[in-house]
Amino acid sequence: MWNRWIALLAVLLLPLPALADAEAAWKAYCARNYDRALRELRPLAQAGDAKAQYYLASIHLDGAAVPRSAAIAVDLLQRSATAGHEPAQFTLGLLLYNGSAAGEDRLEPDRPRALPWLVKAAEAGVPLAHELVGTEYAEGRYLPRDLNRARYHLGAAANAGLVNAQAALGALLGAEYGVQNAMEAYKWLLLAARAKHPGAAENLAAMESRLNADERRAATAAAERFTPMAPPAGACPAF
């Protein structure tokens, strides 16, 4: 009897097999060990691991290990984003915003559904989310037109170095009154024009008549001093 209890206790005291880790599985995927990555990520995702759901969605968007499927990716990203995983929130928002023609299951853009996730991603500091949200506030298509919020979000994206946001912010400020707005507009449009953004050079030329030589020199100097701000660590997803 005691021998049986001792044997049972010995079994119970054996170390449990280590649970798969989403980060390790993702590293395996990046090393093209696709079988291991899928074998470890799938049960984790099924069990509700938000990071595993995000990585598995990324694999379905990438299409190297499995057929590309926007529908499967959206389902996984929705679960991960709902659990609060910030990279999934941004990726889901971007995927819904643009849609996808990749794979057999074409995904049409759904911007009303996308924008709440992009707003969350902007709150987390993702520059491209700031740009898209700011553009929507400026244009009033899928968010109520709000120029203050548009300036805030476009400003965050412009300061991160996104050229589209710099051009949009320059045009927005250029439509407002005041020398300070005109100088800021000139700075952003100059940066966008130097990056060959379509239309930025024409908008810049239109601003010149609103500023005197000293003001243009000051705005140009501000553009020369500009250094993009790095996004917060961890804010940008893998895909």
State the major sheet: none
Structural class: mainly alpha
Number of helices: 13
Cα radius of gyration in angstroms: 24 Å
Can you give the mean pLDDT? 89
Please tell me the total number of domains: 2
Distance between the termini: 58 Å
What is the H/E string? HHHHHHHHHHHHH
The portion of residues forming beta strands comes to under 5%
State the helicity in percent bands.
55-70%
Spans of at least 5 consecutive residues with low confidence:
1-19, 233-239
**Number of strand segments:** 0
Would you give an account of this structure?
The protein is mostly helical and 239 residues long. Helices cover 67% and strands 0% of the residues. The protein has 13 helices and no strands. It has helices spanning 2-12, 22-30, 34-46, 50-62, 70-82, 86-98, 111-123, 127-139, 147-159, 163-174, 179-194, 200-207, 213-225. Mean pLDDT is 89; it is low at 1-19 and 233-239. The chain starts with a helix and ends in a 14-residue tail after the last helix. Helix 2 packs parallel to helix 4 (50-62). The chain has two domains: 20-122, Tetratricopeptide repeat domain (Serine Threonine Protein Phosphatase 5, Tetratricopeptide repeat, Alpha Horseshoe), CATH 1.25.40; 125-230.
List the helices and strands and how they pair.
Layout: H1 2-12, H2 22-30, H3 34-46, H4 50-62, H5 70-82, H6 86-98, H7 111-123, H8 127-139, H9 147-159, H10 163-174, H11 179-194, H12 200-207, H13 213-225
Helix pairs in contact: 2-3, 2-4, 3-4, 4-5, 5-6, 6-7, 7-8, 8-9, 8-10, 9-10, 10-11, 11-12, 11-13
